[in-house]
Amino acid sequence: MKNVIFLIFVHLFAANVGQSQSFTVTGSVLYNPKLNDCFQEVPCLQDTAFTKEEDWIAPKAAVNILVKGTDRVTKTDAMGHYSIDVPSDRDTLQFLYIGHNRLEVPVDGRKVLDIKLTPTPIPVIERLLDLIMPKIEAGEFPDIDQTARKARINRATARDVLWLVLGNTRMKAHYPGEFIPDYRFSD
């Protein structure tokens, strides 16, 4: 009987250990120089002529990759490659690069994830600045959620532009709950 209980315990322990083991996801972050050239116009980003596979190239260096909901973060190297440990195959990776649309990709058990970033169009950034700058000039700190709604964009883009305007130290002081992984602009 002791052997049966021991075997059940070993089996349950092994099953739980296997589920909680992390694994490494690697890949490349690509960009399309033609899309970057048409960065000024929103309709250009929807032009299918610019979506040919050969137009997407590496490198895109210093892109932040983080495991959503954790403190695990890495950056792409000079050739646009990255490697990050994820706790499970059900996690989601977030790809963040200033001036580009934030991308969230479920891991779904894949060990290789190559992704494509598209630029945030200048008209979107201008709309954000029109909302942010009057508040800052008045000595106020804009509400990220309200700014995003008014600019008709996602919260992440509003937060990223606000962060660029305010700087890392001021963002940390006034928005302590925000995770801002791009250390390139730190004070």
Keywords:
187 residues; alpha+beta; Immunoglobulin-like; four-stranded antiparallel sheet; three-stranded mixed sheet; 6 helices
Question: How are the secondary structure elements laid out?
Answer:
Layout: H1 2-20, E1 23-31, H2 33-37, E2 64-67, E3 73-75, E4 81-86, E5 92-96, E6 103-106, E7 115-117, H3 122-137, H4 144-151, H5 155-166, H6 168-174
Task: Write up what this structure looks like.
The structure is a single chain. This protein has 187 residues and is an alpha+beta fold. It has 2 domains: 22-117, Carboxypeptidase-like, regulatory domain (Immunoglobulin-like); 122-185, no CATH class. Helix content is 36%, strand content 18%. It is built from 6 helices and 7 strands. A 4-stranded antiparallel sheet has the order 3-2-5-6, with no helix packed on it. Strands 4-1-7 form a 3-stranded mixed sheet. Helix 5 packs across helix 6. The relative contact order is 0.14. Mean pLDDT is 75; it is low at 9-20 and 181-187.
Summarize the structure.
The longest helix has 19 residues. 21% of the residues are buried.
The gross shape turns out to be: globular
> How many E strands?
7
Q: What is the number of helical segments per DSSP (H or I, 4+ residues)?
A: 6
* Radius of gyration computed on alpha carbons: 21 Å
Order of helices and strands: HEHEEEEEEHHHH
Strand order of the largest sheet: 3-2-5-6
Task: Domain count, please report it.
Answer: 2
Q: What is the CATH architecture term of the largest domain?
A: Sandwich
Q: What structural class results from the helix and strand content?
A: alpha+beta
Tell me the name of the CATH homologous superfamily of the largest domain.
Answer: Carboxypeptidase-like, regulatory domain
Biggest sheet descriptor: 4 strands, antiparallel
Low-pLDDT runs of 5+ residues are: 9-20, 181-187
Share of β-strand residues: 15-25%
Mean pLDDT: 75
Straight-line distance between termini: 64 Å
Helix content: 25-40%
CATH topology of the largest domain: Immunoglobulin-like
At the first level of CATH, what is the class of the largest domain?
A: Mainly Beta
